[in-house]
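Anyone have tokens for Acid phosphatase? Sequence:
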Amino acid sequence: MSTMKPFAFILAVSFLFQVYRDALGSGNLTQVTTIPAAAPSKAPIRNGTEALQNMGIFSASSFQCPRRNFTHIHSKEGLKPFDHVFIFMMENSGNDVILGNENMPFINLLIQHFGFAAEYYGITHTSLPNYIALTSGSNWWSHNDSTKQIFDHTCIADKLEEKGLGWKNYAQSIPYAGYKGSSSYPQNDSFVWLQEHVPFLFYPQIFQDPVRAANIPPLEELEQDLYSCNVPEYVFISPDICHDMHGGSDVCPAVTEYPNTPKKLAYCYNTKNTSKNCVNINNLWKAGDEFLREWIPKIVNSPSWTGNSVIIVTWDEANYNEELDVFTEGGPDTAYIYSTNFSFADHSFLIDGYYGGGKVPLIVISRENPYHIVTYGKYNHYNLLKSIEASYGLDYLGYTSDDRQVKVLHEFFV
Ligand SMILES: *[C@@H]1O[C@H](CO)[C@@H](O)[C@H](O)[C@H]1NC(C)=O
Ligand SMILES: *[C@@H]1O[C@H](CO)[C@@H](O)[C@H](O)[C@H]1NC(C)=O
Ligand SMILES: *[C@@H]1O[C@H](CO)[C@@H](O)[C@H](O)[C@H]1NC(C)=O
Ligand SMILES: *[C@@H]1O[C@H](CO)[C@@H](O)[C@H](O)[C@H]1NC(C)=O
Ligand SMILES: *[C@@H]1O[C@H](CO)[C@@H](O)[C@H](O)[C@H]1NC(C)=O
Ligand SMILES: *[C@@H]1O[C@H](CO)[C@@H](O)[C@H](O)[C@H]1NC(C)=O
Ligand SMILES: *[C@@H]1O[C@H](CO)[C@@H](O)[C@H](O)[C@H]1NC(C)=O
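Reply: yep, here.
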């Protein structure tokens, strides 16, 4: 909260009731439980299943898929194996833009109902190295989106397979599974999905092996897998750029511009501004919110939502280049950024080539764990990766092996 601009905070508070009333209809604001990072409480108010029911997006499936036998999995750090972990990776929006934004009622409801890490950061700028960090434990000194990059490093898919566990990276609008040509539709120059938002296309041991590359299918396959009990343990979901808040495709309806002009967001945060730019950005935000409103119920109402399943919603990085944004912290390779504030205004976010990734929401929807916890512990994508590794008893990749600096997200997985 300390870096939130006062006017953004006021907007966030004043929209709280409005957002809740509009989206839920019941007018009942759930008591917010704040748990300091230092002393996580073990007293759940209720569980995630009840909270989903409360929101009206859950009706238990009459049939549940058989649960995996995890006897051979030796979880670490006191965690349990996740039946399934679903990771939704959204794009380029920080807490300052998301909290209280009236274009994002569903996301704000999730933040109020479920686990929320209020001090969670991307690793760097641009997109791709954030995705790589979250899946291999380092950005490997990359700070660009060039799709020529090859990350010849062990990634979590390798470690999951070693334990006989499944993974898939579902990619909305990818032409076909494992497609790694250009970022465009194969037949023309339009593009609606971006390779750099699909991390498992960058590990050579995967993209060069047709069997493993088949684990990067179009998003439609997720729905089939959920209902046919074939969904793997680890699920990484890459929405296309019409639905991940990135924008910039001529194919997205009503989102024809990349919203990247400094100061623009400050005007557009209020939906009453009907300038063309603001309407486009509002539509982009709404499309992301509606994407989650469509897919999260699909998951929790499916027979695959069993046992210790969790859904994670996060953003790769905050809205770089925007006045509302303050990139304050990065990953363990961005030591400078831990101690000083950087802002777009003076370009001081770039010190010796290092960036932070900005403060972004981390939302945790857990089926069995306490449903609403807010933590102010300082975390980033490495803590999330480590939590998943620990749950499945995997070796720690890259920076996640740094036990002193990188802890698991204990608050959410008691
Ligand atoms: C709001 O929720 C609380 C806790 O579930 C409950 O005790 C209270 O009666 C509810 N209030 C209304 C107006 O529904
Ligand atoms: C799970 O597998 C172990 C052997 O790996 C077996 O001993 C145990 O009975 C199995 N549990 C169930 C519920 O099938
Ligand atoms: C992108 O980063 C890689 C390191 O992963 C570097 O070798 C390359 O020169 C960079 N490309 C651009 C265009 O900055
Ligand atoms: C490219 O192909 C896609 C899919 O068929 C289509 O939606 C899009 O309009 C095409 N773009 C152009 C410029 O023709
Ligand atoms: C609406 O947004 C535009 C930028 O798209 C800005 O120039 C204009 O001043 C804004 N109007 C208000 C009333 O904020
Ligand atoms: C960073 O910014 C916050 C909020 O503006 C301020 O409270 C804090 O003192 C700043 N930290 C440093 C090291 O300048
Ligand atoms: C959630 O809590 C309710 C009420 O205490 C209980 O009936 C239900 O079994 C719990 N569900 C899970 C998944 O723990």
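Residues 28 surround 2-acetamido-2-deoxy-beta-D-glucopyranose (ligand 1) (CB under 6 Å).
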